[in-house]
Amino acid sequence: MEAVVARAGDEDKVVHALLHGLWLGENLPRQASLMLDLLENASFAEGLLGPEALFRKAGALRRLRQYEPALAAVQGAIDCLDPGEVVVHADCVRERSLILAERSLHAAAGAGAAAAASASATGQGAPVDEGGEGRRRG
Which of 36, 111, 114, 126 is the most exposed place for a label (fewest CB within 10 A)? Predict the structure, then answer.
């Protein structure tokens, strides 16, 4: 990728095509980091990214669990859209939903791990059903 970017020079279409290819890739090593590096290329003039580049940035940040910057990027993408770009808007809304869902899951997993660690440290585990079947007393 670095060799292609070096040879592309000021050819924006090549850099945008590379970004799109990275975005479409699956299980690529350092995929999200490479996308963010590419978004710092001069083709994306002085940090002024269009809606599609911001959309891709949001996805890369989500993959890196950087949820707040991801939300800011996807909101920036939505703010840049023309009213007629309904397909890109739908993609952005979907990405925003993914970010929010993953952020909630990550927070819940962290809270569960913290509660388990706290219970373990205080010697208070979950109650154990020694009967094995949760029998009702009656």
Answer: 126
Q: What is the pLDDT of residues 104-130, one digit of tens each?
A: 999 998 877 767 776 766 666 555 444
Distance CA 55, CA 67 (A): 13
SS in 3 state form for the chain? CHHHHHHHCCCHHHHHHHHHHHHHCCCCCCHHHHHHHHCCCHHHHHHCCCHHHHHHHHHHHHHCCCHHHHHHHHHHHHHHCCCCCHHHHHHHHHHHHHHHHHHHHHHHHHHHHHHHHHHHHHCCCCCCCCCCCCCCCC
Place of tokens 């599609």: 52
Record the tokens describing residue 27, joined without a space: 């299980």
What are the pLDDT digits (tens) for 34-86? Answer: 999 989 887 776 567 889 999 999 999 999 999 999 999 999 999 999 888 89
CA distance 77 to 73: 6
User: Going by C-beta distance under 8 Å and a sequence separation of 6 or more, which residues neighbour residue 73?
Assistant: 54, 55, 57, 58, 61
pTM value?
0.76
